[in-house]
């Protein structure tokens, strides 16, 4: 099996409202990523766009963004379910021999009500009337963690403050206010036990990556970043609550991508993690499946500062989704953030990116995990 | 090119009007997946990954795959959700093929969803797809867009209304023999010409219905395909193409992007003379006139001579290159399912399992899908025994 490298990337700064439309944003990000890779649009074979129609306010919204992302006259597709899912599509297209150079892009410009779009994604008879939507589903997970003693409300505030502190130092991040634990703990209650500063905003901006076959990557870069592992997993929407909390789909994606990348001990073998945590409790819930600690060990890891941006095992050194949460290009943003980390940290060689579609809520969600690494630090 | 991914199983539900549908999305998904698995003798536990194809909005939900469990979610296998408008079925087929050819998975399930299930007014949803500043306020519908092409094509190539009626009738007559078709009336060209005008020059019986029904396909890697199926249908080449979004600048003259795509795909598949090299073709024809423009773009004839193929019966089921033996999209249009159906129909033909609509021993086939608010996207797949 050949290898796939990432030879260029770019991101715009993220904010409350965009001053460009999604196609313009994608055009800006894609052009900059091509420039970063040292290639032009004519060299591209394929384009994968990450988006969902509801976040673009139009149907068949890839018609809007794929040509702007370099896809005009090319093999172009749109993958729903997150940016890493779109990366996987481009990755497969390169390994299959269909493409040598592929671009993955996403952009967010449209204001939407994420409660309505999320609720509309749930089952019409049982779930919508409850009403189940992203925030209420996050709160169910949070209360479950509290009840089982796996975390406290203080831990939620602490993980949020950790993200805000790291986001403050990230020039691309949307929220850079650096809120403290006190700020988070005194922010208004949004959906018990989640406070408003423990929930991700809706961010606008765009990101793009340029992927290349092994041959092409070596031609374009003397130390390309390789995708050494990538895998997905799904979960049933009508599973029991215990099944939901087991996160088997996530565990499957983690196990398989780690195996591909030869990661035996993630706490030692990985330099940073960029994971999708649209509400503070998710980051805590994911430490154990990611292999950072044993069952119940997450709060200790957090309280000890191990997972802060400057800690031994940085998780979301970009500030994560609490600081920057674009619905369409979030997964691509997390990959770009991991690449920023590898670029900016001497000695850092390998990062893990975890992504999912839980912007729409949990239950019925899909996950993707990928490992990026440089040959030399 | 080395043969690496193959179609080994196909499962249909029956198709009906979306207004008469009594089955839920879950019922349809289960039935199609069950039928596809049964054809190969597999269980859901044998599937490595699933690809779901539909268009959000039309199904009156957001990301409908999240609320279905027929694709192996209980076993936590990867579920990839592809949406490129009407061509999503072809794009999803491409995803499945790439996953297998990349060595990521051995057995992949592809699902073509009943896109029009539960929606009250398709046109309102489709109108949101138009560029918001200029095009959208015009309220241009799918049929208007179809009529732009059909009117210009008539004028440029001396085509008569009767020819459009004839191509519609060819599909309607074929659908009578297809147990999975929705409209099975077998209209004659005269009956088509007597049907009400919808948007000149397109008449009612030249327009696709809105159907409900679903299809699932099982694809497998080389070794597994041979093990599991006596007549695996190999994917020799597949690709897609995207046009610009700003439709106001377009000249609705022909399917120029499809022509470019065909050149690329034929080169990969070693097709030199499409009319001779292909034994069967399923082309995406939501409006009957499109089929003629596609003959042109796909190089079945010299430019503008598509009508001679039709008049000479070349593309009839007993002709040199039968096209749309299933009755095409003009008789059964369950949204994205119809894009997957094109591939399913070619696979069934090559396997020799197309029942009443079977062509005699075809070996090479072409499947086409088309989509976008203005038809910006095309996919083409060359399948072979």
Helix and strand pattern of chain A: EHEHHHEHEHHHHEEEHEHHHEHHHHEE
Low-pLDDT runs of chain B: none
Number of domains of chain B: 2
Unreliable stretches of chain A: none
Largest sheet of chain A: 9 strands, mixed
Strand numbers in spatial order across the main sheet of chain A = 3-2-4-7-1-8-11-10-9
Largest interface: A-B, 67 and 63 residues
CATH topology of the largest domain in chain B: the name is Peroxisomal Thiolase, Chain A, domain 1
CATH architecture identity of the largest domain in chain B: 3-Layer(aba) Sandwich
Write down how many β-strands of chain B occur, each being a DSSP E stretch of 2 or more residues.
13
Strand order of the largest sheet of chain B: 4-3-5-9-1-10-13-12-11
CATH class of the largest domain in chain B: Alpha Beta
Order of helices and strands of chain B: EEHEEHEHHHHEEEEHEHHEHHHHEE
Q: Quaternary arrangement of the chains shown? A: heterodimer
- CATH fourth-tier homologous superfamily of the largest domain in chain B: Thiolase/Chalcone synthase
Number of strands of chain A: 11
Can you describe this structure?
- The complex is a heterodimer of chains A (377) and B (385).
- With 377 residues, chain A is of the alpha/beta class.
- In chain A, 39% of the residues lie in helices and 19% in strands.
- Chain A has 17 helices and eleven strands.
- Chain A has helices at 22-37, 53-56, 62-65, 67-71, 83-95, 114-120, 134-147, 153-168, 181-185, 214-220, 241-246, 248-261, 266-269, 280-287, 298-303, 320-323, 330-344; strands at 4-11, 46-50, 75-80, 101-108, 189-191, 194-195, 205-213, 225-234, 272-274, 350-356, 366-374.
- In chain A, strands 3-2-4-7-1-8-11-10-9 form a nine-stranded mixed beta sheet, sandwiched between helices. Chain A has a two-stranded antiparallel ribbon with strand order 5-6.
- The longest helix of chain A is centred in the first third of the chain and has 16 residues, at 22-37.
- The mean pLDDT of chain A is 96.
- By secondary structure, chain B is of the alpha+beta class.
- Chain B has 13 helices and 13 strands.
- Chain B has a nine-stranded mixed beta sheet, sandwiched between helices. In chain B, strands 2-8 form a two-stranded antiparallel sheet. In chain B, strands 6-7 form a two-stranded antiparallel sheet.
- The longest helix of chain B has 16 residues, at 25-40.
- The mean pLDDT of chain B is 94.
- In chain B, helix 2 (88-101) packs across helix 13 and helix 5 (161-175) crosses helix 10 (288-297).
- Chain B folds into two domains: 5-121 and 212-232, Thiolase/Chalcone synthase (Peroxisomal Thiolase, Chain A, domain 1, 3-Layer(aba) Sandwich); 122-209 and 234-384, Peroxisomal Thiolase, Chain A, domain 1 (3-Layer(aba) Sandwich).
- At the A-B interface, helix 3, helix 4, strand 3, helix 5 and helix 6 of A face strand 4, helix 2 and strand 10 of B.
């Amino acid at each position: 099996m050949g290898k796939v490298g990432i030879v260029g990337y770019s991101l715009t700064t993220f904010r409350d409202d965009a001053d460009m439309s999604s196609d313009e944003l994608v055009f800006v990000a894609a052009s900059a990523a091509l420039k970063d890779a040292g290639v032009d649009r004519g060299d591209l074979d394929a384009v994968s766009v990450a988006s969902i129609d509801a976040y673009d306010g139009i149907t068949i919204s890839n018609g809007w963004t794929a040509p702007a992302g370099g896809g005009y006259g090319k093999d172009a597709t749109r993958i729903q379910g997150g940016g890493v899912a779109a990366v996987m599509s481009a990755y497969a297209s390169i390994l299959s021999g269909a493409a040598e150079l592929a671009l993955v892009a996403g952009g967010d410009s449209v204001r939407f009500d994420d409660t309505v779009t999320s609720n509309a994604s749930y089952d019409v008879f049982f779930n919508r009337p409850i009403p189940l939507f992203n925030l209420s589903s996050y709160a169910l997970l949070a209360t479950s963690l509290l009840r089982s003693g796996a975390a406290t409300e203080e831990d939620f505030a602490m993980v949020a403050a950790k993200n805000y502190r790291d986001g403050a130092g990230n020039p691309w991040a949307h929220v850079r206010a650096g809120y403290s634990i006190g700020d988070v703990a005194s922010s208004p209650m949004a959906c018990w036990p989640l406070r408003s500063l423990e929930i991700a905003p809706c961010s606008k901006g765009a990101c793009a990556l340029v992927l290349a076959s092994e041959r092409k990557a070596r031609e374009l870069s003397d130390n390309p970043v390789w995708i050494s592992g990538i895998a997905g997993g799904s979960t049933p929407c009508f599973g029991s609550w215990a099944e939901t909390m087991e996160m088997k789909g996530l565990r499957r994606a983690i196990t398989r991508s780690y195996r591909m990348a030869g990661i035996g001990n993630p706490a030692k073998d990985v330099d940073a993690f960029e994971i999708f945590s649209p509400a503070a409790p998710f980051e805590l819930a994911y430490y154990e499946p990611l292999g950072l600690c044993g069952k119940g060990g997450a709060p200790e890891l957090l309280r000890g500062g191990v997972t802060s941006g400057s800690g031994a095992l940085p998780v979301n050194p970009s500030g994560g989704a609490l600081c920057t949460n674009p619905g369409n290009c979030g997964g691509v943003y997390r990959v770009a953030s991991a690449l920023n980390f590898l670029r900016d940290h001497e000695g850092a060689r390998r990062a893990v990116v975890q992504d999912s579609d839980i912007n729409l809520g949990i239950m019925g969600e899909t996950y993707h995990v990928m490992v990026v690494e440089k040959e030399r630090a | 090119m080395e043969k690496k991914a193959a179609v080994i199983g196909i499962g249909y539900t029956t198709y009906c009007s979306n207004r008469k549908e009594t089955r839920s999305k879950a019922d349809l998904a289960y039935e199609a997946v069950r039928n596809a698995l049964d054809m190969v003798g597999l269980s859901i536990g044998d599937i490595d990954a699933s690809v779901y194809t539909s268009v959000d909005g039309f199904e009156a939900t957001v990301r409908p795959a999240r609320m279905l469990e027929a694709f192996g979610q209980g076993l936590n296998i990867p579920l990839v959700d592809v949406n490129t408008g009407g061509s999503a079925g072809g794009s999803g087929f491409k995803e499945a093929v790439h996953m297998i050819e990349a060595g990521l998975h051995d057995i992949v399930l592809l699902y073509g969803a009943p896109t029009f299930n539960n929606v009250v007014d398709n046109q309102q949803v489709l109108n949101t797809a138009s560029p918001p500043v200029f095009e959208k306020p015009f309220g241009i519908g799918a049929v208007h867009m179809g009529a732009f092409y059909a009117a210009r094509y008539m004028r440029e190539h001396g085509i008569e209304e009767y020819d459009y009626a004839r191509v519609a009738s060819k599909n309607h007559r074929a659908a009578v023999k297809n147990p999975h078709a929705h409209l099975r009336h077998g209209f004659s060209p005269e009956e088509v010409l007597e049907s009400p005008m919808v948007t000149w020059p397109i008449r009612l019986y030249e327009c696709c219905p809105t159907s409900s029904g679903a299809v699932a396909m099982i694809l497998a890697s080389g070794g597994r395909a041979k093990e599991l199926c006596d007549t695996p249908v190999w994917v020799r080449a597949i690709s897609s193409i995207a046009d610009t979004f700003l439709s106001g600048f377009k000249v609705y003259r022909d399917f120029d992007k499809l022509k470019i795509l065909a050149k690329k795909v034929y080169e990969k598949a070693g097709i030199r003379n499409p009319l001779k090299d292909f034994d069967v073709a399923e082309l995406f024809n939501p409006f009957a006139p499109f089929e003629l423009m596609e003959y042109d773009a796909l190089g079945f004839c010299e430019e503008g001579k598509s009508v001679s193929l039709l008049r000479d019966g070349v593309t009839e089921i007993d002709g040199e290159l039968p096209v749309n033996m299933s009755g095409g999209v003009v008789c059964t249009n369950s949204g994205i399912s119809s894009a997957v159906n094109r591939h399913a129909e070619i696979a069934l033909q090559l396997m020799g399992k197309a029942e009443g609509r079977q062509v005699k021993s075809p070996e090479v086939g072409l499947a086409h899908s088309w989509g976008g608010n203005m038809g910006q996207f095309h996919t083409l797949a060359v399948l072979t025994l």
